[in-house]
User: Which sequence fits this backbone?
């Protein structure tokens, strides 16, 4: 895996090629795992069950074929370039459609560009598709220095699109990628024709009047937000305060990394799927986790939470976005409420989907593509 120098503004072709000794080391570490005990009968309520994790780790060691996954990822043209002192990895798949619109896709944590594997080709029928790896994640890692907050990342991605020759383009972001997409819209409203998001997080302002007349579905989403804040924010507390302490464990133990990511896929995918792999596929789940493992970016990917937690501007009031914004809401999992979204964004498109979760492009790729195309009214769509 050859990377560009992070001071080199040229664009370099990139190809994934994990050395065989790293594959052998992964299998050896998995075989030497010291498994923890657990309280009987607690299921997923206190974290990832040991029996589930043992079975998934066994498949990772002896059933999952990284070389096959690697070859599939290498079918997409990949590149790296240095921006603001940091290596940035991205896919660039130009469309054969002469009227295609450039479209930048931004992944969520703890995902990667793997999140969009199933949608790049159908989107490329109508868009020039660019998929980035967030600084600190995967092949855009490790971080070359501190300070990579949402604003700095947004600025780097604006520069990337300019470097690719795109003066006008759309942006799609999932979860944390939605925050970056919205910030790009604020920074470059003259270049960005629209922002499409899913997994959008909206917060009430504290004004009681804002809560009057919420529908039953919206009340359920608000309750879901409250439950998240009270019971599911342990990872935020750790990653926003001591990400490097966490990194020592995840960087050394593949089962630790496996559990850390699998738990989020369990909690953030459609609850109609009993297990994470039921929602996104076991091989796809392990491809994403393997990417974190082989690049050693558990800690650096967590640093965005630290930057957000220590950046006063991250939570200060911001001007309402002016770029047209489309929102896809997965009703089984999402918390986005339209009136809160309209307070902060220029909402022109709102779709509520009966199926899916936060990782919509993996869980419901056809619905994802359809909604993105509908929002941008892609030529010939």
Assistant:
């Amino acid at each position: 895996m050859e990377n560009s120098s992070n001071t080199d503004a040229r664009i370099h072709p990139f190809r994934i090629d994990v050395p065989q000794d790293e594959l052998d080391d992964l299998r050896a570490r998995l075989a030497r795992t010291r498994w923890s005990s657990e309280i009987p009968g607690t299921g997923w309520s206190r974290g990832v069950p040991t029996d589930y994790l043992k079975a998934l780790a066994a498949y990772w060691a002896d059933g999952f074929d990284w070389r096959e996954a690697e070859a599939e990822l290498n079918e997409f043209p990949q590149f790296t370039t240095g921006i603001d002192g940091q290596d940035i990895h991205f896919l660039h798949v130009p469309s054969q459609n002469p009227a295609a619109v450039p479209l930048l896709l931004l992944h969520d944590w703890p995902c990667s560009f793997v999140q969009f594997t199933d949608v790049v080709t159908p989107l490329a029928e109508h868009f020039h598709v660019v998929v980035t790896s967030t600084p600190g994640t995967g092949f855009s890692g490790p971080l070359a220095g501190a300070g990579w907050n949402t604003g700095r990342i947004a600025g780097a991605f604006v520069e990337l699109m300019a470097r690719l020759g795109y003066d006008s383009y759309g942006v799609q972001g999932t979860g944390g990628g939605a925050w970056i997409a919205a910030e790009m819209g604020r920074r470059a409203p003259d270049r960005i024709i629209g922002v499409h998001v899913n997994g959008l997080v909206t917060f009430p302002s504290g004004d009681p009047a804002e809560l009057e007349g919420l529908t039953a579905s919206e009340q359920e989403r608000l309750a879901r937000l409250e439950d998240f804040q009270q019971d599911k924010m342990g990872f935020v507390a750790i990653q926003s305060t001591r990400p490097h302490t966490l990194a020592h464990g995840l960087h050394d133990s593949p089962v630790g990394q496996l559990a850390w990511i699998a738990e989020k896929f369990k909690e953030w995918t459609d609850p109609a799927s009993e297990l994470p792999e039921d929602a996104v596929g076991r091989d796809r789940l392990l491809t994403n986790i393997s990417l974190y493992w082989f690049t050693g970016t558990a800690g650096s990917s967590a640093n965005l939470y630290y930057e957000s937690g220590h950046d006063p501007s991250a939570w200060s009031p911001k001007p309402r976005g002016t770029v047209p914004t489309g929102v896809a809401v997965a009703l089984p999992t999402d918390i986005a409420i339209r009136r809160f979204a309209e307070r902060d964004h220029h909402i022109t498109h709102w779709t509520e989907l009966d199926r899916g979760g936060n990782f919509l492009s993996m869980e419901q790729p056809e619905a994802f593509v359809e909604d993105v195309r509908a929002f941008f009214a892609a030529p010939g769509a």
Remarks:
- The two ends are 37 Å apart (CA to CA).
- The first strand starts at residue 12 and ends at 14.
- The beta strands are 12-14, 78-83, 86-93, 101-106, 127-132, 169-174, 192-198, 324-330, 346-353.
- Residues 216-231 form the longest helix (16 residues).
